[in-house]
Specification:
By secondary structure, the chain is of the alpha/beta class. The chain is 39% helix and 22% strand. The chain is globular.
């Protein structure tokens, strides 16, 4: 058995989440043996995953969260998961952006990481419904970086700091952009891309309709998760940029439906 004692917390939690989803539940004593860490460490990991809405704690272990379809974790909770994967995805996705491009970034923690990778690219026009993404470009410009033209939609703020609703939808539909970088709550071959937030689903549909090409930026843990509302079929995605944690069978299934899958 591989010694995982020195794994970073985020890596260990990703492994735990994979086990929960694959097996439908895990026990603390099994995880302590598998990962070679203490009961207390595993219980802290399960607490963190439960706060993020990824699992539900039960006596002696955890099961997949029944609330995953309808509960939308806050930005800070989601930021605590898969940090290394999001950074790798952001670096890979940034290579698709040329100077002078008109792009859109939806809300989410992975698009937020991508925004930080894009601040050095000249003459960008950025459409976003994310307050966090807008702040990244504003702070970079104040620090002397290249100026980007940022169009921040209006709308109602979600727990993940996205602006959604009719105001956002009308603003997005009036614009056209070369590339859309899109985050998602869940990815499934059957259900496509989905979110627990009905208004966010509609805003994401508006983004996709206004984009020449859609680039999905989402880590491997999103595969197999299904939210309340589907907003796109996988065939509508031109490129999926994900991380090396994606199982080979999932990658094969995705490639049958998506134009290109890039592993960061």
């Amino acid at each position: 058995m591989t010694d995982h004692a020195q794994l970073l917390a985020e890596q260990r939690r990703a492994m735990i989440l994979d086990e929960v989803r694959r097996r439908g539940g895990v026990r603390v004593n099994e995880l302590t043996r598998q990962l070679n860490v203490s009961d207390m460490t595993i219980r802290r990991d399960l607490d963190a995953l439960a706060r993020a809405g990824a699992v539900e704690k039960v006596h002696g272990g955890a099961v997949p969260s029944e609330a995953a379809r309808t509960h939308e974790p806050g930005f800070e909770a989601k930021s605590a998961l898969e940090l290394s994967a999001k950074e790798a995805i952001a670096r890979e996705a940034a290579r698709l952006v040329a100077p002078g491009a008109a792009i859109a970034l939806s809300g989410g923690t992975t698009t937020y990481a991508l925004a930080r990778e894009l601040t050095g690219i000249e003459r960008l026009t950025v459409v976003t419904n994310s307050v966090r993404v807008s702040d990244v470009f504003e702070q970079a410009q104040r620090a002397g970086g290249p100026a980007a033209t940022v169009v921040l939609t209006g709308g109602v703020r979600t727990p993940s700091d996205s602006l959604v609703g009719p105001v956002a939808d009308r603003a997005i539909r009036s614009l056209r952009f070369d590339l859309l970088f899109l985050g998602t709550h869940g990815i499934s071959a059957e259900a496509g891309l989905s979110t627990p937030n009905l208004a966010e689903a509609e805003t994401n549909r508006a983004f996709i309709a206004s984009a020449h090409r859609t680039v999905l930026v989402a880590d491997h843990t999103k595969w197999g998760t299904v939210g309340l509302s589907t907003f796109a079929e996988l065939g509508e995605v031109g490129v999926w940029v994900t991380d090396a944690g994606l199982p080979s069978r999932a990658a094969e299934a995705a490639r049958e439906l998506i134009g290109e899958v890039l592993i960061a």
